[in-house]
Design a protein that fits this description.
445 residues, alpha/beta, Rossmann fold, Serine Threonine Protein Phosphatase 5, Tetratricopeptide repeat, DNA Cyclobutane Dipyrimidine Photolyase, subunit A, domain 3, 6 strands, 7% strand, globular, binds ligand FO1, FAD
């Protein structure tokens, strides 16, 4: 078998029958290094065609033109790469629960393979498809090095509890990817996607404009190569300095699946960049997989209710504490707070679709301190993160917001107003770590 069976999970009890195989691409939008696509290709074998479909949902929550623009550029590349291997690509618009079963009937498909995704919305799509299909629906975890369902059967408390579980299995799963074989069986002929017409007809929120990050698998691989060569050696030391530009800047590519985290892990593991390598693998594998673990096992991952009980209790006890400032979502969104440092972080995100990881923590914690309630703070932070970050709408975003506002994967600290025992951060702390004035100068105004 090409794909480790532990990556594969059946989502319904219907049989896999002889016929074409449909790969419903969703989280892993790439041709290379894609375990789901490889599994689908293997199931199709020599006798049956493999067809790849992407179901475009124009009202994906929180997404704007910025995100669709990036995603569609990457998908156009996927279509071209698949065509070179004789594999048809079909883009359909609408509700996956309707679109996928209809396509299965049209093709007479004998089985469907899709990407593992722990988000509630995606699990809902998969449930609807699983119920409607007369044939097998299989999920493949191509996003995690160690498949999320293998790491742990329950929600883990913190990085320290998931880390040994991942490290134990890491070597078994960190393998090189096989190449995707060209298609031998005659495939149903498909007209190529008219990307221009699709973009012109896209009815999405255009108020958030595209950014100039180049999308697609080639660009993602180049970004990885540049990071490993130029910055991995200083990553451990400089990653927390928002002025240093030492981070990987791969998160948007990971979010849209334009590169496999496993490809980045293979590159880092082979780099021989000691400390940088270890620090990067911790973020890339342990922290990323901790986010998938949380979303998979906590159905409240997108609300404050997903926070640990101790944090909900302490936040509630400090609900009535006077706030030093209190802003509406619109004031936060427009970067109209009293703090030039906070406004600079908001501006960086609005303009570039990216905010440095260290600033994300400070940014979210101040939203808690300056909102009228923890619930409102959570809703504001998540909405702004999803609207502006290119990598928003991701398990990492949900976990990042809950970590900052509500102690997820953290422990209680010294009690303070508003925060209770949730870890506090202030501008003075930032100034100790990096040149905040330089950051303000760059992103202020
Ligand atoms: N996945 C899809 O299968 N179809 C879509 O139309 C789609 C739109 C979309 C827009 C913005 C965005 O950030 C993600 C989007 N995704 C879409 C999902 C994405 O691929 C990820 O699977 C999840 O957001 C993270 O797990």
């Amino acid at each position: 078998m090409l794909v480790n069976p532990a990556r594969i999970h059946r989502l319904n009890a219907a049989p896999h029958v002889p016929g074409p195989i449909l790969y419903w691409m969703s989280r892993d939008q790439r041709t290379a290094d894609n375990w789901g696509l490889l599994h689908a290709r293997e199931l199709a074998g020599r006798d049956h065609p493999l067809v790849v479909c992407f179901c475009l949902v124009p009202d994906y929550p929180g997404a704007t033109l910025r995100h669709y623009d990036f995603m569609l550029s990457g998908l156009a590349r996927v279509e071209a790469d698949l065509a070179a291997l004789g594999i048809p690509f079909i883009l359909r618009r609408g509700d996956p629960g309707v679109v996928i079963p209809r396509l299965v009937a049209e093709l007479g498909a004998g089985g469907v393979v899709t990407d593992f995704d722990p988000l509630r919305i995606k699990q809902g799509w998969q449930r609807a498809v699983a119920l409607a299909l007369p044939v097998a629906l299989m999920e493949v975890d191509g996003h995690n090095v160690v498949p999320a369902r293998q790491v742990s059967p329950k929600q883990e408390y913190a990085a320290r509890t998931i880390r040994p579980k991942i490290h134990r299995l890491f070597g078994e799963y960190l393998e090189e990817f096989p190449a995707l074989e060209p298609q031998a069986a005659a495939a149903p002929s498909q007209p190529p996607t008219d990307w221009e017409a699709l973009r012109a007809g896209l009815d999405v929120d255009a108020a958030v404009s595209p950014v100039d990050l180049v999308a697609g698998e080639d660009a993602a691989r180049e970004a990885l190569a540049r990071f490993v060569t130029d910055r991995l050696a200083v990553y451990a030391e400089r990653r927390n300095d928002p002025n240093a530009g030492a981070t990987s800047r791969l998160s948007a590519y990971f979010h849209f699946g334009q590169i496999a985290p496993q490809r980045a892990a293979l590159a880092a593991a082979a780099s021989g960049r000691g400390e940088g390598q270890a620090a990067f693998l911790e973020e890339l594998v342990v922290r990323r997989e901790l986010s998938d673990n949380f979303c998979l096992h906590n159905p409240h991952h997108d609300t404050l209710a997903g926070a640990p009980v101790w944090a909900l209790k302490t936040l509630d006890e400090h609900r009535a504490d006077p706030r030093p400032y209190c802003y509406s979502r619109e004031e936060f969104e427009g970067a109209r707070t009293h703090s030039p440092l906070w406004n600079a972080a908001q501006n960086e995100m609005r303009r570039t679709g990216f905010m440095h990881g260290y600033m994300r923590m400070y940014w979210a914690k101040k939203i808690l301190e300056w909102s009228s309630s923890p619930e409102e703070a959570h809703a504001t932070a998540l909405a702004l993160n999803d609207r502006y970050q290119l990598d928003g709408r991701d398990p990492n975003g949900h976990v990042g917001v809950l970590w900052s506002l509500a102690g997820l994967h953290d422990r209680p600290w010294k009690t303070r107003p508003v925060f209770g025992s949730v870890r506090y951060m202030n501008e003075r702390g930032c100034r100790r770590k990096f040149d905040a004035d330089r950051y303000i100068e760059r992103w202020g105004g």
